[in-house]
Structure formats: C-alpha cells, structure tokens
Amino acid sequence: MNKRVLLVRDSPAVDELVAKISQMEDCVVVESDSNVEAKALAESASYDVVLTGVGGTLSEKLSFLETSNGHRQNRVILLGSEPSPGDVTAAIRHGAFSYFTAPFKTSWFQEIITRALQTPDPVAPIQLLSALPNWIIMQFAADHLVLERVLQFLRELHSDLPPSLCDNLMMACREVLLNAAEHGCRFDPGKYIQFVFARTKRLLLYQVRDPGPGFAPKSMTHAAISNPVGDPIRHLEIREQQGLRPGGFGILVAEKIMDEMLYNEKGNEALLIKYL
Amino acid sequence: MPTQPTGPVKIEASPGSKDGVNVLKVSGPLTIYNFFDFQDFTRKDKSPVLIIDLGEVPYMDSAALGCLLGVHVSCEKNQRKYAVVNLPERLQTMFSMAGVSEYLNTYPNVAAAESALS
User: What is the pTM for the complete model shown?
Assistant: First the structure.
C-alpha cells in the first residue's frame, strides 16, 4: 500500500529532500506551497508523514500535530531555516517526529524519513522532563527508532558548532546511548533511558542513565578499552570466544571524543564532558 | 537484537575489472541493526580479492566496525586479500579514534585497490 507524504515546498532548500522522497518505493508525495495550505489538506485526510515548510511560524508548524476534523498527523517532521534550540525543544514537547534545519544533510534526513515511513504504529514518545535552552532532560524507551530521533534532535541542538565537532559528539552519544539500550535495557522498549544535555559557556555535558545492573569498565576484556597497547583488535577474539556480536569500540571512541567520561558506582550512569 | 526495521542500507556485489576480484558496494548507514546483512555477504564471498566500497556509507557504529575488522581477521587467516575503499571522512575519523586505521587495508578507490591487490 502506498505511503502518503504531505510536504510544503516553500524553499529551494527542500528540493533535494523532495527528490529523495520521490525516489522511494510505494510513496506518493502531495506538495503544497505553504503551511496554511498544507494544514487545510491535513484536515481532510491522514498522511503517513508530514513535512512542514522551511518558512512560516513555529505555531503553524506545530499545528500539524493537533487533531483537526478527526485527522491527526502522527509523524510530523518540522523544517526550519536557522538553528533555534527553543523550536527544537518545542518540537520534542509537542511530539514531532523530527526536526531539521537548512541546509539539510540528506543522509540524516533519509534515515529519519525512511524510518518514519517504515515503522509501524505506535511511535514511542520522547518525554521531555525539562527543557530550558541550556539544560534539557529527556526520557525515552530503549527503542532504536527513538534513539535515532533523539540523536537528530540533539544534532539540531548542536548545529551552531563546527560540523566536524558536532559529528564527533553525535558519534559518542550514539555509542553511549546504544550501550544503554543494549546492555542496560536489553532493547526492551518497556525500559527507559534518561538523558540529560546541559550546555554552559565552556562545556557540554551529557548524562546517560539506564535501569540495568551496570558494569565495571575496568573488567571489560571484551571491549577495546581493555586492549593492550599495540593490539587494538585483541578484544575481538575474546568477543568471538564469548559468543558476542562484533563491536566493542563504543566506549573507546566516546572516550576519545570527550574530554572526560566517568561512571557512577553502579556503572549504569555515564557522564560525558566536552570542553568548548 | 532489536526488531525495528533496519536502516536503508543497500549492499550490491559485482565483479571487479580484473579476474578474481569482487566489489561490494555498501550504501547507507551501517549499524548494529543491519550489519548482519553485510556480515552475511562478506562470509559468503570466497573471491581471492574482496573490495569493500564504503563511499556511500554516511556513518557506521561500533558493531559495524567490529564486523569490518572481522573481514580483516578472516582474510588474514585464510590468506585472502581485501581492501576498503572510498572511505568518507567521518569513517576515517572513527577508524582513527578506534585505533584501527593502520590495521585496515584502505585505498582511495576501487581502481587503486585492484591495481595493488590483483
């Protein structure tokens, strides 16, 4: 069955996104010129995914998340023209599926739009427990789709940083969040990860807490952090002997990216710090 | 393992321009959710020279990196040759941070790898 995407084509910046969506199989694209016109269309039918305009007000964009005439669009991706932490947190608070600021990185967009189109209902929510511009606390299920959405929101909150730094920080966050989901929650969507992001003038701080039993970093011979100097793949053999999947580089990579990384006594909570 | 749909990764195998060379072109993010497809392809491949083109992989995670190094270990054991080509900058950064850049046989592109290995 065809998936229906409603989008607002109000800027040349979205042309590449439209091209990506149009290439997708079983996907019908309905275009509109403005948020207002698209909203009228959304009130008369349900769409699998809605992409707001790049222009227009935040309230226009958030209005797609309200139920009108019995139609509520479950997967609304907000587009914006410039970084705005307030808009990003508003999008999370109102249950938007994702948020992207121009110029759009098509690889991230393609990942999100594909998941928006493929993942069956219901979409697990991201609970926003606190949303000050410089201190955000979120709680969400140990679910891969949610992790990808969280990472994209987070990427937007870092969009004023140099792209290579932003990429590295997201790489570290991805690894630590995946560890929390896999080892702390066993990918059980009924279990929750708490994530804190705080930003001061001089540092970025991330805190990841999972409900798992924790771990002792120094006892992990199956992780790359335990490898002897000069043998960076020693742990792969140990992982194979223990029947573990390939990997084990996550903590090492995160530690290399961050300036400081520490764990609580139980080992189920990590603090990651990057100085600016 | 999670049951979410995998990301939009595509893996295409094709013969190289020289005898005994197979080229595996991977497109899309390579992650814990889909690296098994990649692992399956690489394990089934018995060609003397396997070239893995990662030019269209925007990012990979620790699990996928471990899988890629599994190819390295397997080829070393079985005296087969492999190459990783067209590495995007983001992946080069990850390999460097993981301390494995010097372990993997990397070349700028397929032609350079074919010339060097076959």
Answer: 0.92
